Amino acid sequence: MKSTPSGSTFRPPEPGHRQRVAGVDPPDPARLALHTVTTKPWDLETAIEKYAAAGVGGISVWRETIADRDRADRTAAGRRIRDAGLTPVSLVRGGFFASADVEERERALEDNRIALTEAVDLRLPAIVLVCGADPNQPLETSREQIAEALVELAPEARDAGVSLLVEPLHPMYSDTRSAVPSLAAANEICRTVDDDAVGVALDVYHLWWEPGLEEQIRLCGTGGRLRAFHVCDWKIPTTDPLLDRGVMGEGCIDIPAVRRAVERAGFTGFIEVEIFSDVYWRGDQEAYLDRIIGAYRDYV
Fold it and tell me: pLDDT tens for residues 99-154?
């Protein structure tokens, strides 16, 4: 039993204990996908090999893994993903549109155009966007710049056959990472942009706290915008705001309840595991992958 700083207690689930809410069955194993950053010590080729061997269904590729590759190499990597039996899910990440500096905003647009080319080369159908924020200007101004950038990029994304997915981040990242701190804010940006090329990536780590989350998920699904679902857990206590995510079942997020809400909203896509953890990155990655697969079965 752990004590939180406030003196309250949190009891993590016992190993092997399946946490379920009424009406939520274990997820389909075929829907499991991993972000390459989850097993950051592995290069892309190793991740492809290990994920496929473990029966993982899909892969989301972080741009760091392809940073030094030309178009031919990226095309070959995409072919390797498909030949291994993995489904390409998304490219991570684009965005960072908000800035008080006009030249920075232009550079961000060009970088996102490069990301579109990378997604096409890898045959990844979506780009996850961390939309950015600038502490030198009001958050509302940053949100306006984000919407303006999406309006400009959406026709190019549509022509490329790639969705642009706004990922709302926890409010603790509202200083420099994202002026989109809730699903409500992401839904509003999508309504403003009003383009089928723009959707939402929902990550439980960022949104589990949000009041009215189930209703916002319903609205997102009704609008056809809910196109990605990311899972991990919020550890108690959390020792780092970025690099201490937990494996599902290790923390306090009611992941099955969120999954029920996204599925009621019509989402049937991959359930993507995205974990940033210095602790797990230092460990045996194959044992870690095995743990993730078990946790997906038991706690998602």
Answer: 999 999 999 999 999 999 999 999 999 999 999 999 999 999 999 999 999 999 99
Tokens standing for residue 122 = 């890898």
Cis peptide before 88 (omega within 30 of 0): no
- Report the largest interatomic distance among the alpha carbons of the chain, rounded to a whole angstrom: 56
Q: Which residues pair with 129 in a beta bridge?
A: 94, 166
Around Cβ 236, how many Cβ atoms within 10 Å? 17
Continuous segment of H or E residues that includes residue 61: strand 58-62
Residue 10 corresponds to which tokens in the numbers above?
């949190």
- What Rg do the C-alpha atoms of the chain give, in angstroms? 19
**pTM (two decimals):** 0.93
Q: What CATH number should be reported for the domain holding residue 142?
A: 3.20.20.150
Neighbouring C-beta atoms of residue 203, cutoff 10 Å? 22
Domain count, the chain: 1
In a domain, 193, yes or no: yes
φ/ψ (deg, to 5) at 62: -85, 140
DSSP 212-242: THHHHHHHHHHTT-EEEEEE-EE-SS-S-TT
Parent domain of 89: 30-299
Let me know if residue 93 belongs to a domain.
yes
